[in-house]
Structures are given as structure tokens and as C-alpha cells.
Amino acid sequence: MACGDGPADESLRDAWHHFCDRLKTAGDAVFKDANPATPIARADAFRFLTQNLGQAFDLALETKDPAYPQLHPFCTPTRKLGGDVADFTYRQAWIDGRHAYRITGRRGSARWLNVTVQGPRPDLIPGTDWPSLHEPFGDVPECNVFGHQLHTDADGTFELVIGGDRREGNWLPTTPGSRKVFIREAFDAWTETPTTMTIERIGMDAPRPVPGPEGLIDAMDWAGAFLTGAMRDWPEHSWRYSGGICDPTVTNAFPRDKVADSASDVTRGRVAAHMVWELRPDEALIVEMDAHDGFWIFGMGGVFVGSMDYLYRPVSYTPARTAVDGDGVVRFVIAHDDPGVHNWLDTQGFSNGNLTYRNLASVNRAVFRTRLVSRSAVLDELPANTALVDAAGRARQLTDRYHGVKLRYGM
């Protein structure tokens, strides 16, 4: 049998060739101006692409039918995208507002959980003339429920209905344009456990149809657009259209007028601030924030804004894992090698990257200060009572991190 013997052969081959051509184009974006021309940065950009190639057809085909929904782990320790933050987990399921769905699970001990119904994805960000972010992003939140709002049994089990007729208890409405359930869970202490969940369409009574040529052709087109969009949009889209979260023209400092006390993004349940950093081998950056109540997260990202290696390296901090100095100031040191301070943010050897702040379910004021210093003078620039760690202490930190992250993902 040869190509052309089947009635769909030519269409399938053409679609595959087109996908492969788009994949090549996506690879060319590795060499964009935003990505430094260093071997490690170029390799990391290809890694960013291959990680998302690994999930392209899960999103485009295997979980795409909203009549047979599945929760897809969108970001993991080996897959980064979308400005993900190390101490979050992200899951999504494609849905259709014409159906009703049931999510069942058991609430874990993670400090924060948000389940959001996402609506249509417009070409432009609402209220602006800015293009929406690439698929599967850009859709508009319609409604949500936080973990503390879920009614659970004594053992934490719950049922959450999505769509259908209004009902009491755990229920989120849908609209004709509802297309996705997006689930984010955020962790503070390493011992916190994840919420287990599964989703099904109510009334599902037959097996999922086997995808045919038309479904594969559509999936190849979606996957190609997803990968080219990911390589095209990051990091520039977040710079241009983030509404003041980041100013890439000023490195090593949060935007001067950015104070993380905004009440926007309420449906998404977080306030964000973002900084682009750039360090030479002999430099370090001290980042300060006055300590405040609430649940906040600092997380390091690469050039393409995906989270850094949070399984093995100290690239994120939360209140439960952060040492606060005696003067009530939280201080982090971004450095290429271990400076011996408790709150070290590891660059992993990269010269450029991103630092993201998230403030969850709180509008407590957080003003940021940064100081670029000589790496050799870091300890001289810090208070005398700054929490330090020796090699054994750092090893314990990394071991706790390793086991804590694996707990979150059931690895």
C-alpha cells in the first residue's frame, strides 16, 4: 500500500507536512532578539519548544473533544509555559457550554485553589486593540470558585457541577461560549497535599469515537498554531500587553509605579508583578519587600517566562519557606552561585530571566526594592542577622523541595 491508495491519504500527508513546516518556523524563534546568544540560552529555548511539542497533541486531539473531557496537567516539572509559577499546579479540561459536567475529588491541604470557567477567546484582549495570547490562552474568565468556598464532606470529598440547571451547593454556570475549565492550585509548605480531581460529562453513555482523518487534520493545524504561537508570543506578549505588570526596558527592577495592591483580576484570584533581571557573572541582585500578611509567591523564570527548574533548585519562595529579617523585610538574593543565605534564588547559570510575584486572594500592599551589587559583597550588603545556611542546610532545603514537589504531582 502506498500514499494515495486511501481516500484521505493526500489530505493527511499535506496536513502533516504543513505541521512540520510550522514546527521548523517555531524553532527559528529560538534565535529572536529577546533570547541571549549564549549556548545555554539557545539550548533552553529549544527545550521550551520540545516540552510543549510533547503536550501539543494532548491539547489538540487527545483531550480536545468536550463531550469526553479529561483533566490535562498543563504545566509540570518537565513542561513549562505561560508564565507558570513554580508553586502552582495547572490543569485544564475542554468543555462545551451546551453540556453539563461533574468534577469529583478530595480537597488536599494546598493553601489556595481556584476553579474557573473560561469563555470565548476573542481576537483582541477585551477593551483594547491588543491581540489575544496564543491558544489555549486568551479566553475570558466567566466565573470561578475558590477552594475555601467548596462544600466538602468530613474527609474532604466533594462534587462540583459545571453547567446545566442552577442548583444549590457546588455549582458553576456556563454560557454558550464556555470552552474550558482551568484549575490552579498553589502551595505554601512542602508538606501540603494536592486536590485530586476527575471530570466527566453528565449523561456520557458511550465510548469516545475514534478520531478520523478530519479530526487529525484539525489537530495538526491547532498544534502547529499552538507551537508557533508559544515561540512567537513569549516573552514579548507579556511585556507589551500585561497592563503595567512588567517594563522590560528597565532590568533588575520592578516597574517604578507598580505596587502589588490592585484589586484587578479578581476572578483569576491573584495580583501580579513582574521583573526582568540581567546579571553578569560577578553580580548579584538583592530583592526586598516589606513582610506582610497573606499568601504570596516569588518565582524565577527563564527568558521565555516559563518557570525554572523547581524540582532540583531553589527558584521559588512562599511565606512558609522564607526567612524574614529582624527589621521585618523579606530579602532575596538572585545569584549565579550559592551565597550562603537562606533566601537564595538560583539563576541556574543563565544571564537573563524573569522574577514573578503573585499575591493570592489578598490586596495587601507590597512595595519592591532592588539593589544590584557585587557578588563578592553580598553579605556586606545584608543585615548582620540575615538567615544563613551552610552546605548541609542547603542540602536539606533541596531535599525538602524535591520531595515536596513530587508530592504535589504524585511522582
Describe, in plain words, how this protein is organized in 3D.
The protein folds into two domains: 10-235, no CATH class; 238-409, Jelly Rolls (Sandwich), CATH 2.60.120. The chain has five helices and 17 strands. It has helices at residues 9-28, 39-62, 213-233, 236-241, 391-409; strands at residues 72-75, 88-94, 101-106, 112-118, 141-146, 157-162, 171-172, 180-186, 196-201, 270-278, 283-290, 295-301, 316-317, 329-335, 344-346, 352-360, 368-374. It has a five-stranded antiparallel sheet, covered by helices on one side. A four-stranded mixed sheet has the order 7-6-3-9, with no helix packed on it. Helix 1 (9-28) runs parallel beside helix 3. The longest helix is centred in the first third of the chain and has 24 residues, at 39-62. It is globular. It starts with 8 loop residues before the first helix and ends with a helix. The relative contact order is 0.16. Residues 93-180 form the DUF1214 domain. InterPro entries: DUF1214. This is DUF1214 domain-containing protein. It comes from Mycobacterium yunnanensis.
Q: What is the count of structural domains?
A: 2
Helical residue percent? 10-25%
Structural class: alpha+beta
Which ranges are low-confidence, i.e. pLDDT below 50, for 5 or more consecutive residues?
none
Number of helical regions: 5
Gyration radius (Cα, Å) is 22 Å
**Order of strands across the main sheet:** 1-2-8-4-5
Kindly state the number of beta strands.
17
| Largest sheet properties | 5 strands, antiparallel
Strand content: 25-35%
**Average pLDDT reading:** 93
Distance between the termini: 43 Å
Task: Name the shape in a single word.
Answer: globular
What is the H/E order? HHEEEEEEEEEHHEEEEEEEEH
